[in-house]
Write a structure and sequence with these properties.
single chain; mainly alpha; Endonuclease Iii, domain 2; 2 domains; elongated
Protein backbone atom coordinates (compact mmCIF):
# COMPACT_ATOMS: atom_id res chain seq x y z
CA UNK A 1 0.00 0.00 0.00
CA UNK A 2 1.07 3.61 -0.47
CA UNK A 3 2.70 5.50 2.37
CA UNK A 4 1.13 8.59 3.89
CA UNK A 5 3.59 10.71 1.93
CA UNK A 6 2.64 9.03 -1.34
CA UNK A 7 -1.05 9.44 -0.56
CA UNK A 8 -0.38 13.10 0.19
CA UNK A 9 1.16 13.47 -3.25
CA UNK A 10 -1.83 11.77 -4.89
CA UNK A 11 -4.28 14.04 -3.10
CA UNK A 12 -2.32 17.14 -4.11
CA UNK A 13 -2.41 16.01 -7.74
CA UNK A 14 -6.16 15.43 -7.55
CA UNK A 15 -6.57 18.88 -6.03
CA UNK A 16 -4.78 20.43 -9.00
CA UNK A 17 -6.78 18.35 -11.47
CA UNK A 18 -10.16 19.09 -9.89
CA UNK A 19 -9.92 22.30 -7.84
CA UNK A 20 -13.67 22.89 -8.06
CA UNK A 21 -14.83 19.39 -7.09
CA UNK A 22 -18.19 19.49 -5.34
CA UNK A 23 -21.41 17.57 -4.76
CA UNK A 24 -23.12 17.36 -8.15
CA UNK A 25 -26.56 16.48 -6.78
CA UNK A 26 -28.67 19.61 -7.22
CA UNK A 27 -30.45 20.63 -4.02
CA UNK A 28 -31.58 23.72 -2.14
CA UNK A 29 -31.61 22.47 1.46
CA UNK A 30 -30.64 19.46 3.63
CA UNK A 31 -33.97 17.72 3.06
CA UNK A 32 -33.65 17.83 -0.73
CA UNK A 33 -30.06 16.61 -0.45
CA UNK A 34 -31.20 13.68 1.68
CA UNK A 35 -33.85 12.69 -0.88
CA UNK A 36 -31.39 13.09 -3.76
CA UNK A 37 -28.73 10.91 -2.11
CA UNK A 38 -31.29 8.19 -1.34
CA UNK A 39 -32.31 8.25 -5.01
CA UNK A 40 -28.68 8.15 -6.18
CA UNK A 41 -28.00 4.61 -4.95
CA UNK A 42 -26.92 2.56 -8.01
CA UNK A 43 -27.84 5.51 -10.21
CA UNK A 44 -25.95 8.40 -11.81
CA UNK A 45 -26.13 11.91 -10.40
CA UNK A 46 -27.11 13.17 -13.85
CA UNK A 47 -30.24 11.01 -13.93
CA UNK A 48 -31.12 11.90 -10.35
CA UNK A 49 -30.85 15.61 -11.17
CA UNK A 50 -33.12 15.13 -14.16
CA UNK A 51 -35.77 13.51 -11.95
CA UNK A 52 -35.44 15.84 -8.96
CA UNK A 53 -35.82 18.92 -11.14
CA UNK A 54 -39.53 18.02 -11.36
CA UNK A 55 -39.75 16.16 -8.07
CA UNK A 56 -38.58 19.05 -5.91
CA UNK A 57 -41.17 21.38 -7.40
CA UNK A 58 -43.97 18.94 -6.56
CA UNK A 59 -42.68 17.85 -3.14
CA UNK A 60 -41.12 20.46 -0.88
CA UNK A 61 -41.60 19.04 2.63
CA UNK A 62 -41.85 15.61 4.27
CA UNK A 63 -45.61 16.15 4.53
CA UNK A 64 -45.84 16.53 0.75
CA UNK A 65 -44.37 13.08 0.13
CA UNK A 66 -46.89 11.54 2.53
CA UNK A 67 -49.85 13.35 0.99
CA UNK A 68 -49.85 11.17 -2.15
CA UNK A 69 -50.35 7.42 -2.64
CA UNK A 70 -47.17 5.35 -2.85
CA UNK A 71 -48.05 4.45 -6.44
CA UNK A 72 -47.98 8.12 -7.44
CA UNK A 73 -44.55 8.67 -5.93
CA UNK A 74 -43.33 5.52 -7.68
CA UNK A 75 -44.43 6.96 -11.01
CA UNK A 76 -42.66 10.24 -10.27
CA UNK A 77 -39.32 8.45 -9.85
CA UNK A 78 -39.95 5.54 -12.21
CA UNK A 79 -36.95 6.27 -14.44
CA UNK A 80 -34.59 5.69 -11.50
CA UNK A 81 -33.38 2.19 -10.68
CA UNK A 82 -34.98 0.41 -7.73
CA UNK A 83 -37.72 3.05 -7.78
CA UNK A 84 -40.26 0.96 -5.87
CA UNK A 85 -37.98 0.39 -2.89
CA UNK A 86 -36.78 3.98 -2.98
CA UNK A 87 -40.33 5.31 -2.98
CA UNK A 88 -41.14 3.19 0.09
CA UNK A 89 -38.01 4.36 1.85
CA UNK A 90 -38.74 8.01 1.07
CA UNK A 91 -42.25 7.87 2.50
CA UNK A 92 -41.07 5.97 5.59
CA UNK A 93 -38.18 8.35 6.25
CA UNK A 94 -40.48 11.34 5.79
CA UNK A 95 -42.86 9.89 8.36
CA UNK A 96 -39.96 9.35 10.74
CA UNK A 97 -38.66 12.89 10.21
CA UNK A 98 -42.07 14.24 11.18
CA UNK A 99 -42.62 11.91 14.12
CA UNK A 100 -39.16 12.03 15.68
CA UNK A 101 -37.33 15.08 14.34
CA UNK A 102 -40.02 17.74 13.99
CA UNK A 103 -39.74 17.51 10.22
CA UNK A 104 -36.05 18.48 10.23
CA UNK A 105 -33.10 16.48 8.92
CA UNK A 106 -30.90 15.44 11.86
CA UNK A 107 -27.33 16.70 11.85
CA UNK A 108 -25.89 13.59 13.49
CA UNK A 109 -24.71 10.65 11.35
CA UNK A 110 -25.97 8.01 13.75
CA UNK A 111 -29.40 9.65 13.86
CA UNK A 112 -29.48 9.84 10.07
CA UNK A 113 -28.66 6.15 9.81
CA UNK A 114 -31.82 5.35 11.75
CA UNK A 115 -33.87 6.62 8.80
CA UNK A 116 -35.15 4.02 6.29
CA UNK A 117 -32.96 3.79 3.21
CA UNK A 118 -30.11 5.74 4.78
CA UNK A 119 -26.81 3.91 5.13
CA UNK A 120 -23.41 5.13 6.25
CA UNK A 121 -22.45 6.57 2.85
CA UNK A 122 -25.68 8.55 2.54
CA UNK A 123 -25.37 9.82 6.11
CA UNK A 124 -21.77 10.89 5.52
CA UNK A 125 -22.74 12.83 2.40
CA UNK A 126 -25.55 14.65 4.20
CA UNK A 127 -23.59 15.64 7.31
CA UNK A 128 -20.63 16.73 5.18
CA UNK A 129 -22.40 18.64 2.39
CA UNK A 130 -25.42 19.96 4.26
CA UNK A 131 -23.90 20.65 7.67
CA UNK A 132 -20.15 20.98 7.13
CA UNK A 133 -19.22 18.05 9.37
CA UNK A 134 -15.92 16.41 8.28
CA UNK A 135 -16.70 13.03 6.70
CA UNK A 136 -15.54 10.72 3.93
CA UNK A 137 -18.36 9.05 2.07
CA UNK A 138 -17.05 5.96 0.29
CA UNK A 139 -19.07 5.51 -2.89
CA UNK A 140 -18.14 3.34 -5.87
CA UNK A 141 -15.69 5.95 -7.21
CA UNK A 142 -13.88 6.53 -3.91
CA UNK A 143 -13.61 2.81 -3.30
CA UNK A 144 -12.32 2.09 -6.81
CA UNK A 145 -9.73 4.89 -6.76
CA UNK A 146 -8.56 3.96 -3.26
CA UNK A 147 -8.00 0.33 -4.23
CA UNK A 148 -6.49 0.97 -7.66
CA UNK A 149 -3.95 3.45 -6.34
CA UNK A 150 -3.13 1.37 -3.31
CA UNK A 151 -4.49 3.61 -0.56
CA UNK A 152 -5.93 0.39 0.87
CA UNK A 153 -6.15 -3.33 0.10
CA UNK A 154 -8.44 -4.84 -2.55
CA UNK A 155 -9.91 -7.08 0.15
CA UNK A 156 -10.94 -4.16 2.36
CA UNK A 157 -14.61 -3.59 2.98
CA UNK A 158 -16.21 -0.19 2.35
CA UNK A 159 -15.97 0.55 6.07
CA UNK A 160 -12.31 -0.43 6.13
CA UNK A 161 -11.64 1.86 3.16
CA UNK A 162 -13.30 4.72 5.01
CA UNK A 163 -11.35 4.05 8.18
CA UNK A 164 -8.06 3.86 6.28
CA UNK A 165 -8.71 7.17 4.54
CA UNK A 166 -9.68 8.78 7.85
CA UNK A 167 -6.37 7.66 9.37
CA UNK A 168 -4.21 8.80 6.49
CA UNK A 169 -5.92 12.09 5.56
CA UNK A 170 -6.12 15.16 7.83
CA UNK A 171 -9.63 15.54 9.27
CA UNK A 172 -10.03 19.05 7.90
CA UNK A 173 -9.57 17.62 4.39
CA UNK A 174 -11.98 14.69 4.63
CA UNK A 175 -14.93 16.36 2.92
CA UNK A 176 -13.08 18.00 0.04
CA UNK A 177 -11.02 14.85 -0.50
CA UNK A 178 -14.26 12.90 -0.86
CA UNK A 179 -15.36 15.20 -3.69
CA UNK A 180 -11.97 15.23 -5.42
CA UNK A 181 -11.72 11.44 -5.37
CA UNK A 182 -15.22 11.19 -6.84
CA UNK A 183 -14.31 13.57 -9.65
CA UNK A 184 -11.05 11.71 -10.23
CA UNK A 185 -12.93 8.41 -10.47
CA UNK A 186 -15.87 9.77 -12.45
CA UNK A 187 -13.95 11.74 -15.06
CA UNK A 188 -10.42 10.28 -15.14
CA UNK A 189 -9.92 6.92 -13.43
CA UNK A 190 -13.13 5.53 -14.89
CA UNK A 191 -14.41 2.05 -14.17
CA UNK A 192 -14.29 0.79 -17.75
CA UNK A 193 -11.85 3.12 -19.48
CA UNK A 194 -9.32 4.60 -17.04
CA UNK A 195 -7.04 7.17 -18.64
CA UNK A 196 -3.83 5.43 -17.60
CA UNK A 197 -1.64 6.62 -20.52
CA UNK A 198 -2.09 10.27 -19.52
CA UNK A 199 -2.47 9.82 -15.76
CA UNK A 200 -0.08 11.92 -13.65
CA UNK A 201 -0.28 9.24 -10.94
CA UNK A 202 0.71 6.32 -13.16
CA UNK A 203 4.09 5.78 -11.53
CA UNK A 204 2.43 5.26 -8.15
CA UNK A 205 -0.54 3.28 -9.40
CA UNK A 206 -0.15 -0.48 -9.18
CA UNK A 207 -3.22 -1.15 -11.30
CA UNK A 208 -2.29 1.44 -13.91
CA UNK A 209 1.16 -0.05 -14.38
CA UNK A 210 -0.35 -3.51 -14.80
CA UNK A 211 -2.74 -2.18 -17.44
CA UNK A 212 0.01 -0.41 -19.33
CA UNK A 213 2.24 -3.49 -19.25
CA UNK A 214 -0.54 -5.56 -20.84
CA UNK A 215 -0.70 -3.03 -23.68
CA UNK A 216 2.95 -3.48 -24.55
CA UNK A 217 3.60 -5.49 -27.76
Amino acid sequence: MLTKQQIRYCLDVMARMFPDAHCELVHRNPFELLIAVVLSAQCTDALVNKVTKRLFEKYRTPHDYLAVPLAELEQDIRSIGLYRNKAKHIQKLCAMLIEQYNGEVPRDRDELMKLPGVGRKTANVVVSVAFGVPAIAVDTHVERVSKRLGFCRWSDSVLEVEQTLMRKIPKEEWSITHHRMIFFGRYHCKAQAPQCPVCPLLELCREGKKRMKKREP
